[in-house]
Amino acid sequence: MLPATARLTRSADFRLVTRQGRRAGGPRIVVHALASAPTDSREVVQTNSSARVGFVVSKAVGNSVVRHRVARRLRHVVRDRLGTLPAGSALIVRALPSAAGASSAEFRQDFDSALRRLRLTVDNDGGGV
Question: Where are the alpha helices (DSSP H) in the chain?
């Protein structure tokens, strides 16, 4: 489970990240990312806050059992990498229909690849790449 401070939950937050952020796709997931804070102080993404993540797993992925399994695996993958994301960034991880049969290792590979393409990984010395 992700900490409450690391979750995107409001539809306005999802809309902001998907419309103003960048995206990188893979065979099983698409990651939308908004790395910088907007100028409007009412917006949710703040530079001094920790990274926040939301998930979208639609009915196209499968029935409720399959969708929840995919969401759990994605949460687990993201939770392990939450500390490496830049502070103030907001991500949305959207599962594609091919995610239904994917393993956690495949999700890890896709998520890491998307982060590299979005240039959202953090070096071991704490600096952004």
Answer: 11-20, 64-81, 104-118
